[in-house]
Write a structure and sequence with these properties.
Blueprint: E1 6-17, E2 20-31, E3 35-39, H1 46-53, E4 61-66, E5 69-70, H2 75-79, E6 82-85, H3 97-106, H4 112-125, H5 141-152, E7 159-163, H6 171-186, E8 190-194, H7 198-204, E9 207-212, E10 215-220, H8 222-229, E11 233-238, H9 247-255, E12 262-265, E13 269-274, H10 277-286, E14 293-298, H11 301-309
Parallel strand pairs: 3-8, 3-9, 6-7, 7-8
Antiparallel strand pairs: 1-2, 1-4, 4-5, 9-10, 11-13, 11-14, 12-13
Length: 315
């Protein structure tokens, strides 16, 4: 992929570690000003792809262009124009909140006066202005995450890479980070993120790819992926564990044949993928099936993710 408007363009991108292929020949393009997400189970190749985009790990094969520059030959120039939010905060806990920004700015050759001004603006942006003189160590996890995001913006990057931006945060902190990232996108900053939270991907991403086994298995907007790989609604029928044990679960599913586009048997419930949840519940009752509880909900990105990558836990 390539052409005008693409800040990131990859063709046939491969990453090998010895005999292991972490990324197996992917094509992708990230447009200027969009929020683009990588979803996938552990070992899918997300982090390896992000490290290549961040120019800290060279591709084994393929072409990769970042900000119009060849990643293989212009790594330092590209890194100088990127903002990076790593999965683990790497703040200097002995310094103050303000010092973490102003000292980091020196790595980019930013004059002291400019660094002070930008740091004050960024602390206001991430709602930490009142903590400027505080040390980092006692800050909450959410505050540290917001400070890490502020630090990634010191060099006024056109492109920000975020690896699991809200992992480990409580719901209030996550929503505040989402709101700050949304404001960044409104300013025209291009965001590329990995996340394990499907609701985060739905909230933040204009487009995303689902990776599995080093390959891209689906690409599109969250709504387009849901429309393509799931149904409008899902009916969850919850049963006692013994009711769905072994062949019993399959028998109940067989009783419901024809009521949904797809029926999935889980250890404690059946999932019925359908266009009309309420009508499906009525039909289930008519066939004499009596679950412990019933939930009708809209299809989500999580339904798509699990259909594409499976429910088996990957370590």
């Amino acid at each position: 992929m390539g052409g005008d408007g693409y800040l990131i363009s990859a063709t046939g991108l491969v990453k090998r570690f010895g005999d292991f292929t972490a990324v197996a020949g992917i094509d992708l393009g990230v447009r200027r000003g969009e929020a683009f997400g990588f979803l996938g189970p552990n070992g899918a190749g997300k982090s390896s792809t992000m490290r290549m985009i961040g120019c800290v790990s060279p591709p084994s094969e393929g072409r990769l262009s970042i900000l119009g520059l060849d990643a293989a030959s212009h790594g330092p120039q590209i890194r100088a124009r990127l903002g990076v939010v790593p999965q683990q905060d790497s703040l200097d806990v002995e310094l103050t909140v303000l010092e973490n920004l102003t000292i980091y700015a020196r790595y980019f050759g930013i004059p002291r006066a400019v660094a002070q001004r930008r740091a004050a603006e960024l602390l206001d942006f991430v709602q930490l202005a009142d903590r400027a003189g505080d040390r980092v160590e006692p800050l909450s996890g959410g505050m540290k995450r917001r400070l890490t995001i502020a630090r990634s913006l010191v060099n006024e990057p056109e492109l920000v890479l975020l690896d699991e931006p809200t992992t480990g945060l409580d719901p209030q902190a996550r929503h505040l980070v989402w709101e700050r990232l949304y404001r960044l996108k409104q300013r025209g900053v291009t965001l590329v993120l990995t996340t394990h939270y499907m609701d985060e991907a739905e909230q933040l991403c204009d487009r995303l790819v689902v990776m599995d086994g080093g390959r891209i298995v689906a690409e599109g907007s969250p709504s387009a992926l849901i429309a393509r790989f799931s149904t409008r609604e899902v009916v969850e029928l919850r049963f006692d564990l013994a009711d769905l044990d072994g062949a019993r679960g399959r028998d109940i599913a067989d009783t419901l044949t024809g009521l949904a586009d797809r029926v999935e048997v889980l250890p404690d419930r059946l999932l019925l993928y359908t266009a009309d949840g309420d009508a499906t519940v009525t039909a289930v009752t008519d066939r004499g099936v009596e679950p412990m509880s019933v939930l009708v909900r809209r299809s989500s990105l999580e339904d798509v993710f699990l259909r594409l990558t499976g429910r088996t836990l990957v370590d």
